[in-house]
Amino acid sequence: MKTMTAKEVEQQLSEALNIIDVREDEEVAEGKIPGAAHIPLGFIEERAVELDKDTPYIMVCRSGGRSGRASEILMSKGFDVTNMEGGMLAWEGPTE
Description:
With 96 residues, the chain is an alpha/beta fold. The chain contains four helices and five strands; from the N terminus they run E-H-E-H-E-H-E-H-E.
């Protein structure tokens, strides 16, 4: 599985990144990475049809565990995904 650190993701924020936050609604309400889409882990499999297999995605959760699981699910369906290590606990960049 491909991984990136939170700092690496933050350094690339000026680029058009496709970030998916798989945390629950109440967690995302506390702040998410600007521009990140929100698809809770429990819905990732059924909502995969909304995603483009030609687009690379960066998966994010609180600490990296749920986003790792989401990455495994999407990789098994042929998506190009990278897990952000440490999740939002490691994030020092801006939030919205």
